[in-house]
Structures are given as structure tokens and as C-alpha cells.
């Protein structure tokens, strides 16, 4: 007969190994997708999964962090050290992402630690810790307002940066198209002859 306690211990041990090879990628732009993260980090190792962490502080569904599970701990450690040494940007946004090893608390679906339990209770005004809880509640409200203001500023700044970058990419694409077309119809050789320039096929 299977022992539920043994099953819990086994499930938590497997989860613990998963945490050791998982990265917490933070300070992400809202333009970043799971596929972008995979493309950017797959050059450093094999990615098992990418899961965005819901942002419970703000009302908008805009994740700013993600859990990236690598094949092993060594690959995760390599990425953490790499991003600490040099700026690592995604989507061309000048907001370098941060990387660190994930912690157990980062996983909303983490299994219960064997032998541990969590109790929740409402505090009445006559409770000894009521004032402490009230102060914490006010701090959370203040933090929420500050985070919302900062997020609004970041989103506006990124939108201002994204538009010029998109226009620059379009202009560069048009230039390459024009060069390719001039090579196909040999107009570049006529221009070279007109300006007395020698072109080489290589």
C-alpha cells in the first residue's frame, strides 16, 4: 500500500530538483513573448519550458518576469553568470533583463513541503497583531500605487522607443531590397560605369 507521506516527499524532491535548474528572468518588457525568450536563451542551452509569472500587484495582465527551466543546473548557472557580466536586452528595449536562480516561492503551483502546513485567520481589532497587519496592508497599497506609476512610465517610454526602431528596420529593409533589385537588373553596373567605379562579383 502506497504511503501518502512518501508520495509527498517524492513529489517535493522532484520539484526541488526542478527549482535548481530554473531561472528567474526579471525586468522584462511587455513586448517579450515566450518564443522570444526561447530564441534568445536557447543558444546557451536546452530550454524545457518558459512560464510567465502573473503580476498580482497591478490590475493589468502584464507579466514582467518568467521562469525558464533549463535541462540542467550547469546551463542555468552559465546564463546567470553571463547576464550578470554584460547587459542582455530583448526586443531592442534598453532595459537589460535580470537573471537569477529561481526560488521555491516563485512557483505558484509548488507542492506542499512535507510536514509543513499553512494556517490563515482573520484578525479582529482586539488581536495583538492587528496593528501590524494594518500597517502591512497600508504598505501594500502604497507599493501598488508606486508600481502602477512606474509601470505607466515604462510602457510610455517603450512605446516611444519601439516606433522609431520599427521605422528604422523598415528603412533598412527597403535599402536591402533596392540593392538586391539593382543587382538583379544590372543597374548597379551601369551606375558603376557612370561613376567610374570597379565592381567585383565576390
From TrEMBL:
Domain of life: Eukaryota
Keywords, sorted A to Z: RNA-binding
Domain RRM: 21-104
UniProt-recorded Gene Ontology molecular function terms: RNA binding
Alphabetized InterPro entries for the sequence: Epigenetic_reg_gene_expr, Nucleotide-bd_a/b_plait_sf, RBD_domain_sf, RRM_dom
This protein's name: RRM domain-containing protein
Biological source species: Zostera marina (Eelgrass)
Amino acid at each position: 500500500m502506497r504511503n501518502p507521506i512518501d508520495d509527498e516527499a517524492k513529489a517535493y524532491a522532484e520539484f526541488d530538483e526542478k527549482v535548481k535548474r530554473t531561472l528567474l528572468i526579471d525586468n522584462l518588457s511587455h513586448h517579450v513573448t515566450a518564443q522570444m525568450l526561447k530564441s534568445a536563451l536557447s543558444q546557451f542551452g536546452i530550454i524545457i519550458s518558459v512560464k510567465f509569472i502573473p503580476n498580482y500587484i497591478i490590475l493589468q495582465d502584464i507579466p514582467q518576469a518568467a521562469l525558464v527551466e533549463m535541462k540542467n543546473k550547469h546551463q542555468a548557472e552559465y546564463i546567470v553568470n553571463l547576464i550578470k557580466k554584460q547587459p542582455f536586452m530583448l526586443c531592442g528595449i534598453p532595459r537589460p533583463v535580470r537573471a537569477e536562480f529561481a526560488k521555491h516561492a516563485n512557483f505558484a503551483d509548488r507542492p506542499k513541503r512535507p510536514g509543513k502546513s499553512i494556517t490563515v485567520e482573520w484578525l479582529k481589532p482586539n488581536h495583538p497583531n492587528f496593528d501590524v497587519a494594518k500597517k502591512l496592508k497600508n504598505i501594500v497599497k502604497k507599493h501598488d500605487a508606486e508600481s502602477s506609476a512606474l509601470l505607466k512610465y515604462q510602457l510610455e517610454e517603450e512605446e516611444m522607443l519601439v516606433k522609431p526602431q520599427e521605422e528604422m528596420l523598415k528603412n533598412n529593409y527597403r535599402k536591402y531590397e533596392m540593392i538586391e533589385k539593382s543587382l538583379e537588373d544590372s543597374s548597379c553596373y551601369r551606375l558603376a560605369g557612370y561613376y567610374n567605379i570597379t565592381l567585383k562579383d565576390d
